[in-house]
Design a protein that fits this description.
By secondary structure, this protein is of the alpha+beta class. It folds into two domains: about 220 residues, Metalloenzyme, LuxS/M16 peptidase-like (Cytochrome Bc1 Complex, Chain A, domain 1, 2-Layer Sandwich); about 200 residues, Metalloenzyme, LuxS/M16 peptidase-like (Cytochrome Bc1 Complex, Chain A, domain 1, 2-Layer Sandwich), CATH 3.30.830. It is built from 19 helices and twelve strands. It is globular, with a radius of gyration of 31 Å. Its main location: mitochondrion.
Length: about 525
């Protein structure tokens, strides 16, 4: 009896826990049935398939909270207002038309100062093509008061460096120095732009260097884009090679260089930009004293472009070279000018297509569908989308590097993803691209040199410095419908230009590419 009494007491003490266990198990069972309740035995095969699909969609909409601990796979609109505050860009226009623009940074000890101007290969003639680039190579070869290596040595003695570049519509000469040497750098820049001697022996030496570079040819990305411009804008100034032709380089003389400076290095087409440890008033006073010999011709670059506008031609250029292992090619459509509102949407489309390099990895986990296809299938070494804008036109497309046996698959992937922008666009992809574009614009202006370059470029292009708040508002206004509208304007059933170099026998022909600029839907 005693043993039987103890067993009954033990059973009573365990009843609450067992009931609690039953409650938990029943609740978990009900939650499981909520998601994976099987269909009735009388359901047809189609009902079972539909039920299976519905359950999978429910799991996607309600993912395991463990995977959302540190973030979400769905992009969300990211505000950038907390990082939009920046120093004021001060702009002063001198009586001769020269614009002086500065952005001071109190926490910077270095500075970049330079001259940006509306001058480049586009403003040359067929006979003088190559003069702008030749002039850039000669500008630091001595002045009336500085010997051949004087300007560069003087900057290097300060601990800084001097640099320059020439593009199709823009030329720049700039120096990065310590804050205390900014005024000296302005003096050197003014001297080389107004008092360069261009001695014949220096011209002959530089001519030989340029000719060797031209005769050697190349298989670089720059060569692909040079050929792309030459075929896309053939018989127009924008299609001329920046470096010129061998025949022209052989005939360029001191008179050609001085004439180009007198014609195109005019103060209304120039911007003296500085950023970092600079004081606006000091640079303005220095510019007033030093920039006195340049021409004040009021002819603008826009007027010159209107006389010889660019004309896009659907065409291709192919240079077969079986002695290199990789093929490089670019496919481009005609885009819009820098001041067209749709240029912002094209920048978002560029981010949607993305860029990728085999050496960096991680492609299959990136947001761009094109990058995913390229990386997962291993059909390219690298690729990147580009959007280039000029004063009256532009180019939008994709540049890629691949092995010869991958060209067909790569071309199909590129054309499919570009054409798809006119048909099917995900709002998540657009939000992700907008966030990436805004971040890249902020990262691009990280440093005194990028800021000075941004100031010079925007003043030449827009006539003002666009605040980030305004620019980001324009970017946020781009949605999926905008992308499809802009893609239909520039990509859908449009002619395209192709440039290819290397072992490209397996690259599809022009008609193949042209046929894939649209989809047939029935």
């Amino acid at each position: 009896m005693a043993i039987r009494h103890l067993l009954s007491l033990a059973r009573r003490s365990h009843k609450p826990s067992s009931s609690f266990t039953l409650v938990r198990s029943s609740s978990s069972r009900s939650n499981a049935e909520e998601f994976i309740k099987p269909p009735p035995p009388t359901a047809t095969i189609y009902d079972r398939i539909a039920h299976s699909l519905k359950s999978k969609l429910q799991k996607l909409e309600n993912p395991d909270i463990r995977f959302l601990k540190y973030g979400s796979p769905h992009p969300t609109q990211t505000p950038h207002t907390h990082i939009l505050s920046r120093p004021e860009t001060k702009i002063t226009t001198l009586p001769n038309g020269l614009r002086v623009a500065t952005e001071s940074a109190s926490n910077s000890r270095t500075a970049t100062v330079g001259v940006w101007m509306d001058a480049g290969s586009r403003f040359e003639s067929d006979e003088t093509n190559g003069t702008a680039h030749f002039l850039e190579r000669m500008i630091f070869k001595g002045t009336e008061k500085r010997r051949a290596k004087g300007p560069e040595e003087e900057i290097e003695n300060m601990g800084g460096h001097l640099n320059a570049y020439t593009w199709r519509e823009e030329t720049a000469y700039y120096a990065k120095v310590m804050g205390k040497d900014v005024l000296k750098a302005v003096d050197i820049l003014a001297d080389v732009l107004q008092n360069s001697k261009f001695e014949e022996r220096c011209i002959s030496r530089e001519r030989g260097v340029i000719l060797r570079e031209l005769q050697a040819g190349g298989h670089t990305e720059e060569d692909v884009f040079d050929h792309l411009h030459s075929t896309a804008f053939q018989y127009s100034p924008l299609g001329r090679n920046i470096h010129g032709t061998c025949d022209n380089i052989k005939t360029i003389s001191n008179e050609h260089l001085h004439h180009y400076i007198q014609t195109h290095y005019t103060t209304p087409r120039m911007v003296l930009a500085a950023s970092g440890a600079v004081k606006h008033e000091e640079i303005v006073e220095q510019a007033k004293k030093l920039f006195t010999k340049l021409s004040s011709d009021s002819t603008t670059a826009t007027q010159l472009v209107a006389k010889e506008p660019a004309s896009f031609t659907g065409s291709e250029v192919r240079i077969i070279n079986d002695y290199v292992p990789l093929a490089k090619f670019a496919v481009a459509f005609e885009a819009t000018s820098s001041t067209d509102p749709d240029s912002i949407a094209l920048m978002v489309m560029r981010e949607m297509l993305g860029s990728w390099n085999k050496n960096t990895g991680g492609g299959k986990h990136m947001g761009s569908k094109l990058v995913q296809r390229v990386s997962i299938n291993g059909i390219a070494e690298s690729m990147k989308a580009f959007s280039t804008n000029y004063k009256d036109t532009g180019l939008f497309g994709v540049y890629a590097v691949a092995k010869p046996d991958c060209l067909g698959d790569l071309s199909f992937a590129i054309m499919s993803e570009m054409t798809k922008l006119a048909y099917r666009v995900s709002e998540d992809d657009v939000i992700r691209a907008r966030n990436q574009l805004k971040s890249s614009l902020m990262l691009h202006t990280d440093g005194t040199t990028p800021i000075a370059e941004d100031i010079g470029h925007q003043l030449l292009t827009y006539g003002r410095r666009i605040p980030f708040a305004e620019l980001f508002t324009r970017i946020d206004a781009v949605d999926a419908s905008t992308i499809k509208r802009v893609a239909n304007r520039f990509l859908y059933d449009r002619d395209l230009a192709i440039s290819a170099i290397g072992p490209i026998q397996d690259l599809p022909d022009y008609n193949w590419f042209r046929r894939r600029t649209y989809w047939n839907r029935y």
